[in-house]
Amino acid sequence: MHRRSPALVLACASWIAAAACGPQPDLRTLKLQPTMSGYYDDGVQADGQNRLLPSLTFQLKNEGNLPVANVDLVLAFWQVGADGENDSKQIRGIGNTALEPGQTGEALTVRASIGYKSVAPRAEFFSNSFFKGFTVKVFAKLRGRTTPLGEFPVEPRLLPAARNDGRRP
Fold first, then answer.
1. How many CB atoms lie within 10 A of CB 167?
2. Is the dihedral of CA 159, 164, 166, 169 positive or negative?
C-alpha cells in the first residue's frame, strides 16, 4: 500500500488553488466581428418548398491583455418582433489553443435550423409580406460565466448553398 506524503498533497493542493485563482480573462474584451450574414439557401425540400436559414459568419478578436482559451459561444436566433428565440446553437468559439491579446480567430459560420419555407421563388422571399428578419444574439461562456457579446441583424440577402466539393456554385 502506498502512502502519500502530507507535504506533497499540500503542495499539489496549493498549486491547483494558485492556478485557479490566477488572473482570469475578461470576456468583455472579446469582440465579435461579423463578416457576413444572410439567409443560407438550404435548397428545395422533399415537400417541394424552398428553405432559407438565417446565418452569421464572424471572427473573435481578443482586445484584452490576457490570452483566452476554451470559450463556448451561444448564438440565439430571434425573429424580429418575436417574444422568444426561434433557435439557438452552442459552439466552441475558442479551443484549447489560446487566442492571444490582439489576435483575431478564424472565421466561424453558424446557421439556425429553423428559418423560412415557401413555394415562392427564392428571389421573392424578402419582399413577401410574411418575411420578418432575424437578429442573432451572441453570448460567450467561460468557467460558468456568461457574457453578452452583442446583437447582430441578419441581412436580407441570399447566401448560395455550398457545393459538395466545397466551392460556391
1. 7
2. negative
- pLDDT by position in tens, the chain (length 169): 556 566 555 555 555 544 455 688 999 999 999 999 999 999 889 999 999 999 999 999 999 999 999 999 999 999 999 999 999 999 999 999 999 999 999 999 999 999 999 888 888 889 988 899 999 999 999 999 999 999 999 999 999 766 555 554 4
50-53: list long-range contacts, CB under 8 Å, 24+ apart.
50/117, 50/118, 50/119, 50/120, 50/121, 50/122, 50/125, 51/115, 51/116, 51/117, 52/115, 52/116, 52/117, 52/122, 52/125, 52/158, 53/111, 53/112, 53/113, 53/114, 53/115
Residues 6 or more apart whose Cβ sits within 8 Å of residue 55:
37, 38, 39, 40, 109, 110, 111, 112, 154, 159
Superfamily classification of domain 25-159: Immunoglobulins (2.60.40.10)
> pTM of the full predicted structure?
0.80
